[in-house]
Every structure is written in structure tokens, then in C-alpha cells.
Amino acid sequence: MAKKQFKAESKKLLDMMINSIYTNKDIFIRELISNASDATDKLYFKSLTDSTINADKDNLKIKIDIDKDARTLTISDNGIGMTAKELESNLGTIAKSDSMAFKKDNAEDKNLDDIEVIGQFGVGFYSSFMVADKVEVLSKALGSDEANLWVSEGVDGYTVTPAEKETNGTVITLHIKESKDGEDYDQYLDQYGIQSLVKKYSDYIRYPIVMEMSHQVPDPEKEGEYITEVSEETLNSMVPLWRKSKNEIKPEEYNEFYKQKFYDYNDPLLVIHSKTEGTATFNSLIFIPSQAPMDFYSKDYEKGLQLYSNGVLIMDKCADLLPDYFSFAKGLVDSADLSLNISREVLQKDRQLKIISKAIDKKIKSELAKLLKNDREKYAKFFDTFGVQLKWGVYADYGMYKDGLKDLIMFKSSQSNEYVTLKEYTERMADSQDKIYYACGSSVDQIAMLPQCEAVKTKGYEVLYFTDDVDEFAIQMLSEYDGKTFANICKDDLDLSTDAEKEALSKKNEENKDLLDKMKNILGDEVKAVKLTDKLGSHPVCISADGYVSLEMAKVLSQMPNGGNGIKADLVLEINSEHPIAKKLAEADDEMLAKYTKILYAQAKLIAGLDIDNPTELTDSIVDLM
Ligand code: ADP
Ligand code: MG
What we know:
- The protein contains 21 helices and 22 strands.
- By secondary structure, it is α+β, with helices and mostly antiparallel strands.
- It folds into four domains: 224 residues, Histidine kinase-like ATPase, C-terminal domain (Heat Shock Protein 90, 2-Layer Sandwich); 134 residues, Ribosomal Protein S5, domain 2 (2-Layer Sandwich); 110 residues, Rossmann fold (3-Layer(aba) Sandwich), CATH 3.40.50.11260; 96 residues, Up-down Bundle (Four Helix Bundle (Hemerythrin (Met), subunit A)).
- Strand 11 and strand 12 form a beta hairpin.
- It is 39% helix and 21% strand.
- The chain has an eight-stranded mixed sheet with strand order 5-4-3-6-2-1-7-8, covered by helices on one side. The protein has a six-stranded mixed sheet with strand order 15-14-17-16-19-18, with helices on both faces.
- The protein is elongated, with a radius of gyration of 35 Å.
- Magnesium ion binds next to helix 2.
């Protein structure tokens, strides 16, 4: 009997499938099971309106058989089946215009990315040729008297011949390739391998997927010996948790589901289960872990949510569904709109996914805001773990997302040990205060002890403590909150004084100009200026930064791979005009002044958390004076 040729387009795709270096061959099983499920659906829906069709729901199932010796894997359904004509038209051509359009663009260059796309969104039946060198499809259409067998060994064509089959449905037999060149095909003949693939990709197919599993059990007759017991097992759990209504689900169920599916030992901190209808209709089940995932800070970490179409896993980590600042979230999205559209959407830059991801972003934000409002303690725990991500989110992409995140970030402050939000800070600001004050440092304790902090606190102003590298960058990006700008108390232009105080200070600086210039010359390029100040309370000296770049930013930048492109802060050494040391300086001779100046500068740097260049010189000077 003559071999028939595949339609030209199909042939190209088939060729690509067979010869691809495609990494995820596993998905063939998902495709074949989905087809079996579709065929069963068709039969079932038909039976609803046609009483002559006997579709007892209890008998509808998908069966998998493994024959290791014959190297075959068989997938059978008792669905609607196909006639000879349907076998030809459905399996001899690619029905989907979407796939066709895609293929025209890509068939020429077999580049891995293109193949990934195909794999993710399915070319259905043809994927069986990734693992099989021969495929047989035995099918009997519902209501037909005859069955047919479709056979193909790949690109050179296929045959369709009359065959025997008692009941309606389809049996697909894959002749699994031999393992070679590091490609392991034997895994598709292993019952546990198949079991776990079914669990992974097809757990929520609504018909039972059954397989005969053999297990070693103790022999009841001979102690110490084992016998093989064979039993039919259902591999899939069938009802997706996320499709159940929320009030039917116990917290333990969510927790177990999360731990099993996302490989965590701990219960999630927050569960967000929602059903969305509108421009996009989908169910989503999202978890915020209570601890950072193990590999979260490694570069191997991949963000993303699982994407399901009608209960069938399409993609394990769909990165487009999560913004970077929520990269820690785990979970899944299931949409019925997707299955038919998705490959087209992917070609057209996935509009549907964009709508879904926007809705998810909004949902996570509103749930976090709710948590912040209703369970402060839990939110603080969340923030301890993932707060930095949100602050990076404020800073990222030129502040594109800052408005959605600014009310979710918090800082420690001079007020108490608790976190404070920007909203709370501005609401409890003193009437006379017009700026949001902050200071940067390596720890809350170190900042609290900064000389500048004392003066600001004396005024009754709260100071935010920035201990993360990203804090000040995020705040620069915000530039203001509720009309209030931010002020670094370690900047030299910090302005807390009255006009009279300012005048007095500027007079003092004028009177001591010679002395201050001398000190500046002693320190050379290290500092931009030496000044007298009245903002230090009981402390003798401090270092401040002049201009846009603060001390902390300069520190962070200098640790970056490119050294922050040599960006440095302009330093100002400030001397407390009220401190006895000021008088001592005025009375010192040149030699003493040089020593004092260097010691004071080194002290100020140490207090600010900066490194000093020459510790030996410093200690020598101090010992000298002693
Ligand atoms: P898709 O499922 O996206 O239509 P496939 O390549 O997976 O594309 O399948 C092509 C067609 O073959 C299906 O649309 C269906 O009509 C038919 N088909 C495949 N498998 C079966 C089956 N087990 N029973 C009945 N029809 C099937
Ligand atoms: Mg299909």
C-alpha cells in the first residue's frame, strides 16, 4: 500500500521535532494525554444531548501501558475516536493556523529559542516523534463500524489501513527510541518516570489516568522474600485545588499543596487565592513563602508562576507573570482563554499574559497592603525577609513602579524599635518639621550614635535609619512623599537652625577663616572644606557630604564592580563650635594644629563608618600627645 506524504508544512515541523536538540522532550506525554482528554470531553458533551450515547462518566478514563521488552508506551482513551478521514486530516496536517504561521517564520533556522516556544505551547501530536521512531494510532470513531490504523515512522509519510477494534476510542502506541549519545529514552519505559511526568503535567486532567504499577511486597508465604504485586493505580489527582471555592478549602490543604508543589518545608506566610473575570478570566493561587527560597540569592534562581490552561500545565515558570520585585512569590495561574490563543499571543508579544500579570501584580499589592493594615507583626516578618526586594522595586527602571510600592516599604527609625511606613512618619511629623530626615549606616546602632543624629532628635524630629544599600537610592527615586522631601542628616547643608543662629554661626566661621583654611590645607584634597557647626550637641566633630552624592551612596558605589565609575562624595569636616576643642584649635601652634586636625579628621571618619587610610600615623599622633 502506498505511503501518503505529510502536507508540506507538517513535514517541516515534523522534521524539526525529530531532529531538534530540544531539551524538554517530556512534554509529549502532556500533549497525548491532553488529546485523549479532549476526545473524552467531546464524547461526554455529546452524550449530554444525545441519549443514545452511553457515556457513563465512571467508565471514561485514560490508560497508560508500558511494555519494556517491546519498548512501547501506549496511551488509550475511550473517547470520541477518529474515522479514516479524520486520521488523515488531523494527523496528516497541522490543523492549527497558529502553528502554521509560526512555522513559516521559523522553519528555516532551527534555533533553540524557536524550538522552546514550540515546546512550551505545544504542537500536539507531533511531539511524540521526539521520543518515538514509530507511532501507531488505532482508532474507532463513535458510531462507526470500522476501525483504522495510522502508522508513521517520521517524515517519509504515513499509512492508514482498516483494522480491528471493538469499542470507540483511540490507542496510540509509541515505539520508544533507543537511548544513545547521552539521550535517555529508557526513562519513558519506567513506570515511576511516567508516573512523575503525569503528576507534573497532567495532574488536574478531570478523567482518571490509570496505569498498572508493579511493586515488590513481602511474600506472605516465605519470610524474608518478596513477590511482585501488580495493581492499577490512578496517577492524577483530578480536582485542581484552585478551582474549588475558597470556603471549601482548609488552611492545611493550602499549606500541604504549597509544600508539596513548591518544595518548601515551611508553611507559606500568605496565601492569595482568587478568581478574576473580565478582560482576562483566570484562577490564581499565589503563595508568599515565609522564608526566602534556598537558591533565592543565587543567580540560578528563576522567578515565575506556573501557567495552566484548563488544568493542563503549559509552562512551569512563566516569568512574565511576576514583576521582579515579587520574584519571591510562588504559585500558579489557570486560564481557560489561553489554550487556543496562547501560541498566537506569544507571537504577538502575549497581550493576554500581560493583562493577567497586571491583575496579579495588583492583587499581590492589595493583599500585602491588607496584611500591613491588619496584621502588623506578620507584615514585619514578611518585610524582614523580602522588604529589600520592594525597595529595589521602587528604584528599578527609573522609578517606574515606585507609586505602587511606596506605601509597602518601611524603615526602622529613631522613634522606636518598630518599623515605620512613610505614611506613618509624615502623619506624626512635628508641625515645625518640613522634611523627612534620614541617616545611613551599617546598622541601627551605628546610625543612632552618629553625632548628627543627636541634634536632629533634640529638635524632636524622627530620623529614619537606612541600613540597606538600596535605601537611599530608592528614596532618591521617590524624591518626595506626600509633598515632603527627604533630607540626609549627614549632608552638610542640613538646615535646622533659626535665622539668628545661622547668623551667629556664619560670623564665627568668618572670624575663624584663617584657622579653618589652614586646617583645610593640612588635609589637602581629602576634604572640600573645614567648617564650624552648631548642630553637633555634645560631639566634637563629624564628617558630612556636600552635594548629591552622600557618604553612604559613595560607599555603595565604590563596592560595585566598576567602582561606581569613580564617583566620590565631597567631604566636609565639621567642628562643633561650642566644644572645648574649638578653643584648643585656635590656640595651637602650626605643628600641633596639624596633629589635631589629622586626629579629628580620622575620628570623624571612623564615626561615620568610613575607613581611615593610615591607622599607624593616627595612633602614633595620639601616643605623642599623651
Ligand atoms: P490540537 O490538539 O491542538 O488540535 P494535536 O496535534 O494535538 O493538535 O491533535 C490534532 C488533532 O488530532 C486534534 O485536534 C484531534 O482532532 C485529533 N486527535 C488527536 N488525538 C486524538 C485522540 N486521542 N482522540 C481523538 N482525536 C484525536
Ligand atoms: Mg493536542
